[in-house]
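Aim 2, interim progress: modelling of the phosphoric acid mono(formamide)ester-bound target.
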Amino acid sequence: MSTFPDHFLSSDDLTGEQTMSLLGLADGLRAERDARIRAGESPVRDVLAGRTVAMIFEKPSTRTRVSFQVAVSELGGSPLSLSSSELQLGRGETIADTGAVLSRYVHGIVVRTFGQDRLEELAGAATVPVVNALTDQEHPCQALADLQTIRTEFGELSGRTLAYVGDGNNVAHSLLLAGAKVGLSVRIGHPEGYAPDGAVVARAQELAAVTGAQITVTLDPVEAVAGADAVYADVWASMGQEAEATERLATFAPYQITPELFAHTADEAIFLHCLPAHRGEEVTAEVIDGAASRVFDQAENRLHAQKALLAMLLGS
Ligand code: CP
Ligand code: NVA
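Predicted structure of the complex, ligand included:
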């Protein structure tokens, strides 16, 4: 297998083989944790003993913050969660200087920020591994947990189809790249004007040509979900787009995941959402709280997938 990258800034940073091997490790970690907890034993291991991982959040977070914090702790390391408002970053210190300085103290840096360029600037100045915990462009840790959830359900990824319906955003981009790498077909159904980045779609198509996945981008939500094994929704207005939220409600309304739209999927299809969700907007309560929903397994898998990522990036 090729060398694991220095940083994880994009779903494109891992090969398909590395992604599959990470998912295998994540499944193993999940099984081992469950067994230890059932036996009344501590789930803590010593993979990151003596290491500290700093996490910088320039946007709010529930799942990413807590799952990374618990992941580092359960791997035997020390997590350090920092919001930009309590760092000098909030008073104008550059992101590059922040990365260089933190590298002198900690063994890894997890960052949630706005532009992908900001993350790349930090990674360029850091001398320790940097992980993308969501940017405007990508959410690659989320995609790892999503792939783990789909594989757990169906036993494989290759040959299956994931339909993402909504905004061609960060989550859509990472799903396109990660899916294409492992042979999972990805369809995006989006309103006019909200297509995913053309460069990301082109890259996903290039990757899919090798793995046999199909990449489809359409304005028709029914075409997107027809026969799909999993349907995925995300918020219509992402963090940083709050001012557009009202205007987006009307544009995105035909893309709501309703029981009627979901009925076009394959039998046994599942519903996924990265969360947080807005019931009554991108998905009805019937669907997200229904029998096909796997959203809380997905949220749990953030913990296992990120443990596997940290072990591969930082473990000795
Ligand atoms: N899905 C996700 O990244 O959630 P948070 O914003 O709560 O971290
Ligand atoms: N697209 C959403 C994902 C939240 C986890 C956002 O960026 O706000």
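The mean pLDDT is 97. DSSP finds twelve helices and nine strands in the chain.
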